[in-house]
Amino acid sequence: MINPKNAAWILVLTILLGGCNTQKPKENKIIVWHWLNDRKDALNKLAAGYKAKTGVEVEFKLFSPADIYSQKVIAAARAGNLPDVFGILGEKRTLGSFVKAGHILNLTTYMQANSAEWKERFYSKTLEVVTFKQGNTFNAPEGIYGVPIDTTVINFVYNKSLFTEAGLNPQNPPKTFDEFMDYAKKIKDKKNVSGFVCGWGEGWLLDCLATEWAINLMGEDKFFKTIKGEVPYTDKDWIEVFSYFSKMRDSGILAPNITTMINKESEDSFSKNQAAFSFNGSWAVNVYKQLGANLDYGFFPLPKISNNFPVKVWGGAGSSFMVNAHSANREEAVKFLNWLTEKEQQEFLVKETNNLPAIKNCDEALSPILKTLLESLTILTHPNTWPYNEDSRVIEVMDKGLQQIVMGLKTPEEVAKDIQEVKNRVLNK
Predict the structure, then answer these.
(1) Which pTM was predicted?
(2) 415 membership: H or E segment, kind and range
């Protein structure tokens, strides 16, 4: 299996080596490659509806798992055989490499047509994930290069049944870190369950949580200055951020073996009422439905550690489609993606897949549990929307360091020093 952290570099190197850009003859069929197992039936139904409406056939071709899909896209890019529409998995620089190689159609003109009607449908942070601004660090031409079909948000999750049984108000999730700790300890002591479970064997979940707390404590300006190298990770604010992981460890609320647990294990534990809280994405609605149909739970944004700066939560476009710039069917492909992101089709996808829509004004189609995520759509942040991104080597040391803090192997100060040593090597390279 391809390591996600290396996949982007493989794509960059492979795509920039080039390949022919053969344009296939135009036909009355749009070919779409995707990896979305959970949406296979829904997408096929939409394709049938589009053919009935327009006479244009849309064929969705599923390739999974994700690493197999990515390899197929790489091979097709090299050979000049990309389909009319496809998605790209990976970091923003991966998308940038495709754009710079000329494989993806710039959709800005289409999005701006008719007083920017198409563009204005989307949640701004959702569309920003597939947008390159002028002067971006990836050196990609300015423009919009994808069409999001849903939005993903990462929030805290809490078990309402355990709240009630512990004498807590299930309609009042914690708003601060201190409240979160207090509730988690009360439920753990009274119900003999874990206070908090998460797939911290997967470092990105630790990185995500640390990032959110860092932005809340020091603000986006200082956070980005750290990425640029102007503020060290040994700064007192960063050490304070890391200390919250040791506070959770010392409180005893964490699930056993949390640092070796993958997210699927965490989801299984939470769905079986074995933990009061978790930290997971909006995709969990589908997961919990399959694992625990009677689970009574809710989402809430990051429990803040400071009043100095607003809370931000990770989120943005969950899945997006790109148009092959060399496709003879590119105009028809653009029309189809425009139709796919109209309100009727977006509401259909919401109801069929339990994912948040990519566009605004679909609230009436949302289930009660999805509606609890709406407030987070106005406070989204994500590395794919930032003006700067941290080097993967620094992130890897941070993730490992946070795991070591949770295991009691290192202090926040020691981890901060380790991270800064790697950061210095990156800056001086």
Answers:
(1) 0.89
(2) helix 412-428
Q: In what order do the strands lie in the sheet with 147-148?
A: 57-62, 29-34, 85-86, 320-323, 147-148
Instruction: Provide the residue ranges of all domains of the chain, joining segments of one domain with +.
Output: 4-150+319-358, 153-315+388-428
Is 153-315+388-428 the same fold as 4-150+319-358? yes
What pLDDT was estimated at residue 8? 47
Task: Find all residues with CB under 8 Å of 202, minimum gap 6, and list them.
Answer: 262, 263
* CATH code of the domain occupying 4-150+319-358: 3.40.190.10
Give the pLDDT score at 292.
83
The per-residue pLDDT for range 86-102, each reduced to its tens digit, is 999 988 989 999 999 99
Buried b (16+ CB within 10 A) or exposed e, 21-59: beebeeeeebbbbbbbeebeebbeebbeebbeeeebebe
pLDDT tens sequence across 413-429: 999 999 999 999 999 98
Angle, in degrees to the nearest 10, between helices 236-251 and 412-428 = 140
Report how far residue 214's alpha carbon sits from residue 223's, in angstroms, rounded to the nearest whole number.
7
Q: Which residues contact 219 (CB under 8 A, 6 or more apart)?
A: 308, 309
Q: Which CATH superfamily is domain 153-315+388-428 in?
A: Periplasmic binding protein-like II (3.40.190.10)
Residues of the chain with pLDDT under 70: 1-27
